[in-house]
Fold each of these.
Amino acid sequence: MSKATPNPIVKNIEIINARVANHQDLQRISVNQDGVIEQILPMSQGSNQVVTEVLDVDGDWISLGGVDLQINGGLGLAFPDLTAKNAPMLDEISQFLWDTGVDGYLPTIVTTSIENIQRSLSIIANFSQKSGAKILGVHVEGPFLNYGRRGAHPAEYLLPLTLDEVKRVLGEYAHIVKVITIAPELDPTDKVIPYLRSLGITVSLGHSEATAEQARKAFNLGATMVTHAFNAMPPLHHREPGLLGAAITHPNVMCGLIADGQHVSPIMLKILLRATKDLFLVSDALAPLGLPDGVYPWDNRQIKIINGTARLGDGTLTGTTLPLFTGVQNLVKWGICDIETAIFLATDAPRKAINLPTIAPNQPANLLRWHWDEVAKELSWTRMGK
């Protein structure tokens, strides 16, 4: 897996009167000739940077690009279906994601055969990326999931959650796995999570029937994430808060969230955001991302896409084909949260979830400018630079 990243596109400039998440008041952002952020200071403080251009963004928001920690494919290619022949499409998908505002992503491999998982891991591990959004690692979602909460994951490929099975699935490619989703109640030994953490893999709980007590134990063992909150897990209940209740009340856990209006009701999104700020947006986008609505193959089945929502023939919700930033715009449009929070949930928050730097000095200036149109009541964004 290449460590190459797109060249910074903002250089030798001072951006003034900018709003930046987690910074009070208007800021000035200085970017040096190497395309690196030199400083972020309140407008009330002077700047000693020498630049060739000053850009007044007049109160618009400035952020890094998005990071998508759960995306299943794009432009017709599902990541579990990677082969040597179609591997070049990774560059096309990466460029497409870059054009939708995403700086980095985790190709997500859902439940399939061990052969398919390892083939996809091998191709990603050896892929020399040329451009576009950077592949940050891989998210393995399954096959260690609870049968009763498997959703659209094929039952025939589910496996017991044991050390031996985990080692068998990861093989020699554990080094590129950044996140793995598991159902913690399937491991009575409590050995799997500490083992995964010893490999530097972030453990996310999902597709699970875990009680609050089981989830709390998993978090104390080292799990730090929840996969698509509310979906594929017991609902919040006043007597048994379940996995999600345990996550919301734990200080070191962040929850992924799909804001397409189908996976989770906007009312429940608002409740969750009132309950915790430890959230990040994901697209959970499927292979037809970037393609029109229609019927598409999905492993050995078919999915139907209507208005960006994907379902199996029996109506089972499988994902979306909406870009990550649609979730940002939805949160604002629905009045779920303020603009700053919505932007943060797709840019800085997912970086925080996998321990990447957020917007700050010494970071490459791959910057986005977000503008709120008060007349149209619309939030839009553009990449900065030429």
Amino acid sequence: MPKQPLDLQRKNEHLFLSEKYYRSTNPLFDDLQIMPVSLPNVAVKNVDLTTTWGANQASSPLYINAMTGGSPQTIELNRKIALLAKGLNIPMAVGSMSNYLKYLDNPDVRQSYAVVRQVNPDGIIWANLSAHTPYQAAQKCIDLIQADALQVHLNAAQEVVMHEGENNFVWQDNLQQLVQQLSVPVIVKEVGFGMDRRSASLLQQLGVEIIDISGRGGTNFAQIENERNHFTNYQFLQNWGLSTLESLLETKSLQNQVIILASGGIRSPLDIIKCLILGAHAVGIAAPVLHMLQHYTFNEVQDYFSTWVKQIQEIMALLGCQKISDLKEIDYRLSPQLNNFLQQK
């Protein structure tokens, strides 16, 4: 096979390295302990996981976060991800669609994204682009997959470590243009480095109404890009950023003004519950989906995440919660380290 352009090959390298560094647990979530409820007074069958996304509804507070697309090798993977989202009736985001814009005449690149809407015609699907993409180009991507929203990723740390990365992070005016000009809502997300209150507040001032804080603890793009970078060593940035729990605590005061989504290192239904207790509207998973699809049959993967949904329901009943919003009233304790982080701010 002829060597692919770097933009296409990078997508394949990201998939390989994401799996290489995958961890099945995330000890950072141990920093929050849920206080048990001995008299929950709720039946599991009465727990309602329905989550509203504008005019749309999902069956649970889960969504599949952006992972891939943009090379011939990712067509089948995105097809399976879309089928999984369809089966679970939850939203999904495609990976960055920058390659679609760069290779408009490449049918395989186009199909790597278009396949998602083809197999999930009625699902909630989000396009994905960088923060410097002009709104006219973003609208082309939205139109291709009939996206219900545009996920705009903030990846400054990744770009710094990436040898071929961008170095212009002047994004604010363009973000405002995207919010004002596009035909769908804009979701702004970090890419695994977390978000502080100041950044989230600034996004809110720019008109952004949905923010994914995407914390440290899952797929580490500083680590991945450092492995790809054969010229300069950036290993010292491997622990850059805030964890998902730290980011949720940082942005808790903004939850009445914007919708806060949580992702980054989610490895179990209990991790999901902890994010919802701290006020997340919904919780995104990515690496566990990728890992399972590479090691198990599709039916086994669908059964696995269907079980997650059932277990979320069971944990909510265990806590005496009948709907997602009830989780915000659950008592919890923070580890000394996380509590110290909270107090210092």
